[in-house]
Design goal:
The chain is α/β, with parallel strands linked by helices and 473 residues long. α1 packs across α20, α14 runs parallel beside α16 and α19 packs antiparallel against α20. It folds into two domains: 355 residues, Metal-dependent hydrolases (TIM Barrel, Alpha-Beta Barrel); 97 residues, uronate isomerase, domain 2, chain A, CATH 1.10.2020.
């Protein structure tokens, strides 16, 4: 039996009537502001080619590890969903029916709230997804996706996206970004802004699969000799400049820990010789990653790219799944992370540089008040990224504000980013963040800790101004 799909206008706002009234007013002032999406993993080819997305499964299920990891946890094989390495196929209708059959698993999760928003707001569905409505959903969404109004550029414009950053490897040609730039420059051409971000993990992490082969490719792309330390660093500088020409304002570093190092030049050169030859221990791999964070900070001072650091995730924890399906299949797991000691070598060298911005993210919520907020509340170069990955949720966002505001304030944070591969979750996630922040501000107003006009200014800043300033967009 199908049930009505209803999005309550006060969803995620405070339940207490007086707070809710304040939050409603604040939310109304920011609900329609443009979306600035400074960090994510959408595919730039969507916007360069502007081809239809295909079907409901291709758009909403297969790219979204938040969704398929829940199904996998309840015994649904990823192969039946068509998830995995290129060329892996499965019947999209059958995969969608599996999602519908297991829709109850998502009760109370952010994924449920994001997808319900997409179903109702984007596709106009009026009944909840379930076994009885699965085929009707698939047909309605797939028919809509075949029309011009649901092509990537039209959806970008419809949801007031001002700029979106994708994330590419130094080995990427950035051909799709170049195509978008050419389109932007044409009279009457599409004016959507899609920029890249420099994600050097494949040529910085000695334990990344194919690392040595990646260094060979790095040499070929840059004309530098990446078998030498000096040539390797020069190659990074060259590619960072190339990325900046394609719109990049940031680099992004997915290290397992926040460890940094500041080795003497001869020590760094000797360490590089070991890792580039494949003759290293896990401890040496970690030391090399640590040294490269400090090297990248120095490069950022020179070229102005913002640094983003995302430690605290044990990536690809499921070894069998990784072997069969590859990276980013929902098996990243939070783990404890030290920042105070780990960042000290970098901060001793660059921490007082106002020209450097290092944005810190974490999956270890225990460090919000103990480490991250005090660090960002002191060092001019540090800013706090929003609640990320598992904590991109109503309670996760509230915990972030509670843990960081008293020490770091609001203006040492950088607004919101969605960090998504699922395009239509972008407006859904930004709407959630706006609602949660307005609810938090409403509490401060009700307790007479903020004036109402200050809360109104903060709502604008948290939604729009801080992210533009932090990422220089």
């Amino acid at each position: 039996m199908s049930r009505p799909l209803l999005l309550h206008p006060d969803r995620m706002l405070p339940a207490e009537p007086a707070l809710r009234a304040i939050a409603r007013e604040l939310y109304a002032s920011v609900a329609d502001l443009p979306i600035v999406s400074p960090h994510g993993h959408t595919d730039p080819s969507w916007f360069a080619l502007n081809e239809p997305f295909g079907n409901a499964t291709d758009l909403l299920l297969r790219p979204d590890h938040y969704v398929f990891r829940m199904l996998y946890s309840q015994g649904v094989p990823l192969a039946t969903l068509g998830v995995g390495k290129p060329g892996r196929t499965a019947d999209p209708v059958a995969a969608w029916r599996l999602l519908a059959d297991h829709w109850h698993l998502f009760r109370g999760t952010p994924s449920r709230m994001w997808l319900d928003w997409v179903f109702a707001e984007v596709f106009g569905m009026t009944e909840m997804l379930g076994p009885d409505t699965a085929d009707a959903y698939f047909e309605a969404i797939t028919i809509a996706l075949a029309t011009d109004a649901f092509r990537p550029r039209a959806l970008y414009d419809r949801y007031r996206i001002e700029v979106i950053a994708t994330t590419e490897s130094p080995l990427d040609s950035l051909e799709h970004h170049a195509a978008i730039q050419r389109e932007n420059a044409q009279p009457g051409g599409w004016q959507g802004r899609v920029v890249t971000a420099y994600r050097p993990d494949p040529v910085v992490d000695p334990e990344f699969e194919g690392f040595r082969e990646n260094l060979v490719r790095f040499s070929e792309l840059t004309g530098e000799d990446c078998s030498t330390w000096h040539g390797y660093l020069a190659a990074h500088r060259q590619r960072r400049t190339f990325f900046a020409r394609h719109g990049a304002t940031s680099s992004d570093h997915g290290h397992p820990t926040a460890r940094t190092a500041d080795l003497a030049p001869a020590e760094a050169e000797a360490l590089f010789a070991k890792v580039s030859a494949g003759n290293f221990t896990p401890a040496e791999a970690e030391l090399f990653r640590a040294q490269m964070l400090t090297e990248m900070a120095g490069m950022s001072l020179d070229d102005g790219l913002i640094m983003q650091l995302h430690p605290g995730s044990f990536r690809n924890h499921n070894a069998a799944l990784f072997a069969s399906f590859g990276r980013d299949k929902g098996a990243d797991i939070p783990m404890p992370t030290d920042y105070v000691h780990a960042l000290k070598p970098l901060l001793d060298r660059f921490g007082n540089e106002a020209g450097l911005t290092l944005i810190l993210f974490t999956l270890d919520e225990s460090v919000y008040a103990r480490e991250l907020a005090p660090l960002a509340g002191h060092y001019p170069c540090l800013r706090l990224g929003p609640a990320w990955w598992f904590h991109d949720s109503p309670e996760g966002m509230r915990r972030f504000r509670l843990g960081t505001t008293e020490t770091a304030g609001f203006y040492n944070t950088v607004g919101f980013n969605d960090d998504t591969r699922a395009f239509l979750s972008i407006p859904a996630r930004h709407d959630m963040a706006r609602r949660i922040d307005c609810g938090f501000l409403a509490g401060l107003v009700a307790e007479h800790r903020l004036a109402d006009w200050e809360a109104a200014e903060l709502a604008q800043d948290l939604t729009y101004n801080l992210v533009k300033r932090a990422y220089r967009l």
